[in-house]
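Hi C.,

You asked whether I'd gotten around to modeling the 461-residue construct. I have! Everything is below, sequence then structure, no commentary in between.
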Amino acid sequence: MPEGTGRLILMQIHPGIPPYTDTSGRGKIRIGKDCQPLTGTLRRRIGVETDFTAEEIPGTPESHISAAAMEVLRAAAAREKAPDDLLDLSDLDLLTSLSLVRAGHITRAGIILAGKERSICRHVPGYGWTHLRMIDDTDYSDRMDGRDAMLIAIDRIFDRIMADNPITTLKQGMFHFEVRRYPEIVLREALMNAFYHADFRIGGPVLVRQYPHMLEIGNPGGFIGGVSPANILHHPPVARNPLLVEALIKLRLVNRSNLGVPRMYKAMLAEGKEPPVIEERGDAVTVTVKAGDYSLPVRVFVEEESEKGQGLTVDHLLLLTYLLHHPEIDTHTAAVLIQRSEREARDTLHEMETRRGYLDRGGTGRGTYWVLRSDLHRRLMAPGHPDRDRRTDWEAAKTRVLSVLRQRAEHGEVGLSNAEIRQVTRLDRYQVVRLMKELQREDPAVVREGVGKGSRYRYRG
């Protein structure tokens, strides 16, 4: 083609976001010399191992850095006692020491933490936040959106939540408590988690919905690395954005030990409220915090136990909270509740029974269960009656049933059905059958009349 007679088109093709698949969502990955199907497990590994925030951005770092964001970053780190020699560095040197600036280029993590809004919009287009003050499920009275640097965003959202987070002063004896509808530590931890666990490759904001009696904080990106709602309390930490998280750790704004979620749980449970609900909704993770009613007896009890040198762990608080609303707990239920093995749950229940004196044990073998001690039931002002609502122990159950059968025989009344015995003993259907067989062997005067649902047990003395 002669010079000057044609048109040349130059195109820059940016790399896609792994994993790479066809239009049907299928993909393969090379492992050694073979191409293997890209399974769900391998997809999750790629999601963890590919750090979107570690990619470097063209241009001089200074053109991207926000002075306001750096000021907020330094102030937040100083409150958490970050090393002075780190905070005394210049902006560029500080970001370099945090590995947010590499080889003269700022990374996406650096822009998320300290970038100008225009840099964030251009280089991290999936980043943003929205706060809605909800009237009900479908309408809101107030909305704010933003694309500020991460710590500025957290402060702005926090201030908006706190504007409708009233404080109450409570007094009991020598204890004075100032409590809010949502504890501040819960808000800080939930917001921080939402931002540094967000998948910025997905087009969606960190979304905060503030209802009159409930708060939802959600981030784009589902669970990764084997984390799930059923193990989140104790699962080793898994970072979707390792470079961003590592910088926050050096600034002491987060920790390496996965303490954020347990802290949220403990703050809520120590006030007698329900723990946060953490769940996966599609390609997002949502933390739901309910306002709930504050329990002064529970708060005082937690404080007194702490002063005695036997502070309560999250496991203790979860089990006590469950028993405040249920008559008993067994090993399996406890294990699911505290997200530990049945052996660990049994050890914790045994310790609460023997060393701490919180619980009483009933039943034997697989039928073992635990209840709140009567004195603690009354002290914590739990609903129901501490004694009347308890299950009757096996031998005591036989004695009680036999007594009722004898009384009915003396008055010429009909005997007891399986359902009526369940009401007397709080055993289940099959336990009643076993109990009555034992009672019949021990006392031949106890007989069964009829079959099926119409059968009844009588005493022929």
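If it helps when you're writing up: Residues 1-45 form one domain.

Thanks,
B.
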